[in-house]
Amino acid sequence: MRHIGQIRETNQDSIYTLISSIPRETGDAILGLFIVADGMGGHAGGEIASRMAVSAVARRIIADLLVPAIEGAINVSLQALMVEAVQEANRTIWDQARLTGSDMGTTCTAALLLGRSLYIGHVGDTRAYLIDARGIHQLTSDHSAVGRLIDMGQLDPSEARDHPLRSQLYRTVGQHPEIAVDLVFQPIGDATHLLLASDGLWGCVDDAAMLRIIQTIDSPQRAVRALVDAANRAGGPDNISAVLVRLV
To answer: The domain 2-246 is classified under which CATH number: 3.30.420.10, 3.60.40.10, 3.10.20.740, 3.40.50.1220?
Structure first.
């Protein structure tokens, strides 16, 4: 679900979800592709950038993984594919921005679930979480000034929400000709849910509140609506986007 929030005049977030199955000799494997991109830039630039990022990443993964898998001929490194797909999105947006004189850019967090393994390509501060019986676990690092302070041990995560530099990103998709893409590989183990959330959600609703909503509402669609409603009740200062996947 994505929502414009309470203050913004446009929704610059884009999301994409795909659930499929891949035929294998040992039994079909579930494949899920989930992407959240939070755009930035004036004159609708952020909306265009986030949509281009989602399109480029999805197109690359479908072409290089899903189509060959259907034909029974997977011959690709999934780790490399996730990184290259986001880098391809970066080049596409960078070229378009140079052509139009735009300052557009976007975050992009793309999660590929294949069987019981999760591969994430990540740039920006849109987050990926796994939820299990022990709690909620952030898998990605925020590419923001505050995120860097947390990684260096100079700021407690509990102080990040109200920090004046929280929204200052140092790495985005489309605003430089080349980018480094974080890769996360994570077996899902006994996790019950995967959550992708733009900062319009996690910046308004803390981890404990998100966990409580997810664990007490059985339906993923109702739970994600409750998450968005909670962010709007907290002021909804930004666009709000979330993808919630039940894994069991």
So the answer is: 3.60.40.10
